[in-house]
């Protein structure tokens, strides 16, 4: 009997699971590993590491009636890589190229006096309209989502996750695509009509802005 009791004690101790002190259940919040902004911008400097065709396909999908397919790609990325944000900066890289090209085109169309003025318009479009507004909206949206939109834990086995900042910025980039197509692309070819003073010109310009911001 003493031998059997000793064996039971040893077997039970070998099956014992260590739990961190101060917590008997799952942690309240976990920050999943994701690519850092520094690594993100470093990859943007290397075109060979970017999948440009995939980024073009995502932009095309965002301009259709089924933009939720892009979210499904983020869901699959979460299942395979354990993070929601894009680790490929090709999407942002193409947006930067398109914004720079369209800004130069608008500068030439309006016959801007000097090259420095065109550069200033390009810098304003990139740093203010796209990057600055995107950083503000991504930070504000992430804060609201983490504090007020996270679902309550149903059991100790469910772990509350946090919204990644890069994923919040991805959402801004996704929303910017149809706005860019309408207000930077379509509007450029409709400038003779949009710049008019008739009721038709007013209707076309207002319709473009309404559709772009309501897409």
Structure description:
The protein is mainly alpha-helical. The chain is 67% helix and 0% strand. It has nine helices and no strands. It has helices at residues 2-14, 37-44, 52-62, 68-81, 90-109, 115-148, 165-189, 191-194, 199-214. Helix 7 packs antiparallel against helix 9 (199-214). The longest helix has 34 residues, at 115-148. It is globular and about 55 Å long. The model is unreliable at 1-32 (pLDDT under 50).
What is the strand and helix layout of this fold?
Blueprint: H1 2-14, H2 37-44, H3 52-62, H4 68-81, H5 90-109, H6 115-148, H7 165-189, H8 191-194, H9 199-214
Helix pairs in contact: 5-6, 5-7, 6-7, 7-9
Structural class: mainly alpha
Helix content: 55-70%
End-to-end distance: 77 Å
Task: Profile the largest sheet.
Answer: none
> What's the order of the H and E elements?
HHHHHHHHH
The stretches of 5 or more residues where confidence is low (pLDDT under 50) are 1-32
Total strand count, please?
0
What amount of the residues lies in strands?
under 5%
Alpha-carbon Rg, integer: 25 Å
**DSSP helical segment count:** 9
Q: What is this entry, summarized?
A:
This protein has 9 helices and no strands. The chain has helices spanning 2-14, 37-44, 52-62, 68-81, 90-109, 115-148, 165-189, 191-194, 199-214.
